[in-house]
Specification:
about 425 residues, alpha/beta, Rossmann fold, 7-stranded parallel sheet, 20 helices, 14 strands
Length: about 425
């Protein structure tokens, strides 16, 4: 073990009480964190042979992987897909998307004993890490076990690159131990190469390959009927903590006659929190989970359901992208574009800088400086139906233009099947 990786492991060991405390704190807000704790240290009850292992930290990575997993199942029918996560919401998303067609468990914390136990238990033929997951002991153990490990759909913001540059030796060795890297954009590839990565290919963003199914679109039309066929629908998609309050502060500005706002918080553990906020503000609202027709006097629908984001987009006219109005780095706007909806996104987009700029350049999205400008743009668009419909058409063309990342990624994966 090198001195730097020894120091990293020692630090992890010292931090174990804090890590366990954080786990318990998360469990206080989301009790599902108490389930399957043994898996986080490499103990598992499930077992399978001929495993293709794919790691998706949480919901976003899990959803991004769905077409890749489908293609892997088709191409390697004699193999079992093992999907690992770090969060209960990611695990729940995996169950909703794939059911029993994949195995699922938590990836252990990056302690050598836990990582070795995980690899010994499942003996994967190949490993696939989604987006920005670089665990130094995990990568090293895969390398010395001669198990090819790939980083795919890789993205690296300038902020993250700066942080990684502070531990250059660790990062450089980990990147060198990977069998290959499939980056989303040339900018991501440049940042990865600056940290020492050598085998970097630009394959595009897997999320462009995810399109709403006919069933989802039909369900979206049903939602639209519940919301009100003649109402104009503004969707606040994947909002983060504090953003709902910003929206409600400008509620009157967002609500010219006939407009309904649908707020869908990013994290399900916040559904009740947002409901309480609406109650405190005296806002007339209904929960989507009640599955009732929306009253004409209702101002807000709380989207408190999982796995329905494409349906929410299909039922809306204009989408505000959450995570971008406070410094969270934004959420994915590709799904909104693929649904043919006009997109408005805030100033904080460091997680999706390149794709946001592309969407803006093609006329699929408008980027605003704050929630005040967002309200102005929403009102202007709702007065010009042709304009927001044209933005939606531009979004469809934009999303189709960048499809194909799944096949390019699959072509990079090399392993003994």
């Amino acid at each position: 073990m090198t001195k730097t990786r020894f120091g990293y492991t020692l630090l992890l060991t010292i931090m174990l009480p804090k890590i366990l405390g954080h786990l318990l704190w998360r469990a206080w807000r989301q009790p599902a964190y108490l389930n399957h704790i043994c898996e986080r240290f490499g103990w598992y009850r499930i077992f399978s042979k001929n495993v293709i292992w794919l790691h998706a930290v949480s919901v976003g990575e899990t959803r991004a992987a769905q077409i890749l997993i489908k293609k892997l199942n088709e191409r390697y029918p004699a193999h079992q897909i093992l999907l690992t996560h770090m969060t209960p919401t990611g695990r729940e998303a995996g169950e909703a998307l794939f059911g029993d067609s994949v195995l699922r468990c938590y990836l252990p914390y990056d302690y050598p004993f836990a990582v070795k136990r995980f690899l010994r238990h499942f003996s994967p033929r190949v490993g696939i890490l989604m987006e920005t997951e670089i665990w130094f002991n995990l990568v090293h153990q895969c390398h010395i076990n001669k198990m090819p490990l790939y980083l795919v759909n890789a993205r690296l913001s300038q902020r993250s690159a700066t942080k990684y540059s502070q531990i250059t030796h660790l990062v450089r060795q980990a990147l060198a131990d990977l069998a290959g890297i499939a980056a989303q954009t040339e900018e991501d590839a440049i940042r990865l190469r600056s940290l020492g990565a050598e085998t970097v290919n630009v394959t595009g963003n897997l999320k462009f390959d995810i399109v709403p199914s006919a069933t989802t679109l039909a369900f979206g039309r049903e939602l639209r009927e519940k919301f009100g066929r003649d109402r104009r629908i503004l969707l606040a998609a994947s909002t983060r903590e504090g953003e709902e309050a910003l929206l409600l502060d400008k509620l009157d500005a967002f609500l010219p006659e006939g407009i309904l706002i649908v707020i869908v918080p990013r994290h399900p553990q916040r559904f009740d929190e947002v409901a309480t906020l609406l109650q405190r503000r005296g806002v007339r609202f209904q929960r989507r989970s009640a599955n009732e027709a929306i009253d004409a006097n209702t101002k807000v629908v709380l989207g408190d359901t999982m796995g329905e984001m494409f349906a929410y987009y299909a039922a809306s006219d204009i989408a505000l992208i959450g995570g971008s109005f406070l410094p969270y780095g934004a959420q994915n706007l590709i799904e909104a574009c693929a649904s043919g909806k006009a997109v408005i996104i805030g100033p904080h987009v460091y997680n999706f800088t390149e794709v946001t700029q592309l969407a803006v350049n093609t006329g699929a999205a408008l980027q605003v400086s704050d929630i005040n400008e967002a309200a102005q743009k929403v009102n202007a668009l709702f007065q010009q139906k042709q304009m927001y419909e044209a933005m939606g058409q531009a979004g469809l063309a934009f999303s189709k233009q960048y499809q194909g990342a799944t096949e390019r990624t699959l072509s990079l994966l090399k392993f003994e099947s």
